[in-house]
Amino acid sequence: MNPLLDLLHPYPFERLRVLLEGARPPEGLRPLNLGIGEPQHPTPPVIADSLVQNLHLLGKYPPTAGTVELRSAISEWIGRRYAIPCPDPIDQVIPVAGTREALFALAQAVLDPAERAAVLLPNPFYQIYEGAALLAGAEPVYVPTPKEQGYLPDWGAVSAEIWPRVKLAFVCSPGNPTGAVMTLEDWKRVFELADRYGFVVAADECYSEIYNGDPPCGSLQASIALGRGLERVVSLNSLSKRSSAPGLRSGFAAGDADIIKPFLLYRTYHGAAPSSLTQVASVEAWQDETHVVENREKYREKFRIAAELFGPGLQIPSGGFFLWLPVPNDEQQARRLFEQAWVTTLPGTYLGREVNGKNPGQGYLRVALVPDLDVCREALIRIRETLETPTIG
After folding, report:
1. pLDDT tens digit string along 9-47?
2. Domain 45-287, classified CATH 3.30.56.10, yes or no
3. Distance (Å, rounded) from C-alpha 33 to C-alpha 13?
4. In 10 A of CB 316, how many CB atoms?
5. Where in the chain is the domain with CATH 3.90.1150.10?
6. Cβ atoms 355, 153 nearer than 8 A
């Protein structure tokens, strides 16, 4: 077996399962799961109808490079969304089977296994970043995202001897789990470092269409605004959150043609092309914004309810659909919420790594506001009431 597999950490939800073993929730309550960030709004008809009408495409192998129609639809969406020139649909855009798959695969294509490269990732983080780095033979370098910096990466915490070894940096905006959004100035700092040290920026932007204020500044948008073109940057996005279609497994990678081209070669062997049926439905989804606006408003209403229930002390994130809720002891409180309120949440500790004696995820619960409005309201009421009740013993 590949010895690098031994370096992988248990996934957060496996750790959560162990934490909740033996816990007995109260009778008379329905279970409410806000632990996993799986969008549960109904998938819009524009996608469902296309799938039904094109079932005959299951008899065809999908093109790894994607159909011209899909690559063009993605390119045009990027141009509309970020008010930039549309990327070349042939040289700068490829479809992928969701951002999770593509984030992992991109690291395998970009990193040279013969060198001990360093890979930057925010801490806390989406665990695929870490696994992608480890299985590419690289060293993950955990960059803290402290509250004092708006939960954005503190690049100054990376030691001087690390920077020359950095070959890839994962950047997530809006962030998982904190919902922090990068401004043009924040992107400028990232690209200055990328240009100085020559590393690739992998921008995980799957939450880009769920926001509470202005639309987040995107990586491609920022790179062009800064006058550097799309050099050494790849944006990864999907229909999972934007269109409430996580089971479709459809997204894109777009950016530097000198990265996209070899990445496509890798994917030819990787065999992860979205099905022909998925690709046709995805064209329809990227061309429609009505369902996206409706989807975003549903999340905004949930955050309005959270603000009403928890008061002004609750920090509402700029983007994404997670509450990053501060608590005295995240593991203890997660088990307590399950046992006393039958609400599942995820301890922030499981999303971070301890560096210099500190895990920046410790002391938070990640609460995924993905079920329908009534479920979220009931769950938030139970969470508030439970956390306000003093523990005994």
Report:
1. 999 999 999 999 999 999 999 999 999 999 999 999 999
2. no
3. 12
4. 14
5. 3-42+291-388
6. no
Residue 68: which of 105, 99, 101, 93 has the closest Cα? 93
Residue from 358, 361, 368, 356 nearest 124 by CA: 361
Q: Are 333 and 327 in contact (CB under 8 A)?
A: yes
pTM across the whole model:
0.96
Among 71-75, 261-265, 268-272, 346-350, the minimum mean pLDDT is found in 268-272
Using CA of residue 319, residue 320, residue 321, residue 324, what is the dihedral sign?
A: negative
Q: Which helix (H) or strand (E) holds 168?
A: strand 166-172
CB atoms within 10 A of CB 290: 9
One of 2.70.70.10, 3.30.1330.10, 3.40.120.10, 3.90.1150.10 is the CATH number of 3-42+291-388, namely 3.90.1150.10
Residues in the chain: 393
| C-alpha distances out from residue 341 to 91, 278, 349, 365, Å | 52, 39, 21, 15
Average pLDDT over residues 266-279: 95
**Beta bridge partners of residue 119, listed in sequence order:** 140, 168
Backbone angles phi, psi at 351, to 5 degrees: -105, 0
Question: Which residues, in sequence order, are CB contacts of 168 under 8 Å at separation 6+?
Answer: 107, 110, 111, 117, 119, 120, 133, 138, 199, 200, 202
Helix (H/G/I), strand (E/B), else coil: 326: strand
Check pLDDT > 70 for residue 393: no
What's the DSSP call for residue 273?
P
Tokens (6 digits) for 334: 């997660």
What's residue 390's pLDDT?
A: 76
Domain with CATH 3.40.640.10 in the chain: 45-287
**How far is the C-alpha of 178 from the C-alpha of 324, rounded, in Å?**
6
In the chain, the largest separation of any two C-alpha atoms, in whole Å, equals 64
Distance, CA of 327 to CA of 23 (rounded, Å): 20
Is residue 206 a contact partner of residue 237, using CB atoms and an 8 Å limit?
yes
Rounded-to-integer distance, Cα 121 and Cα 169, Å? 6
List 305's β-bridge partners, or say none. Answer: none
Contact 106, 253 (CB under 8 A): yes
The distance of Cα 313 from the centroid of its chain, to the nearest Å, equals 26
Task: Please name the residue that has the structure tokens 């050494």.
Answer: 232
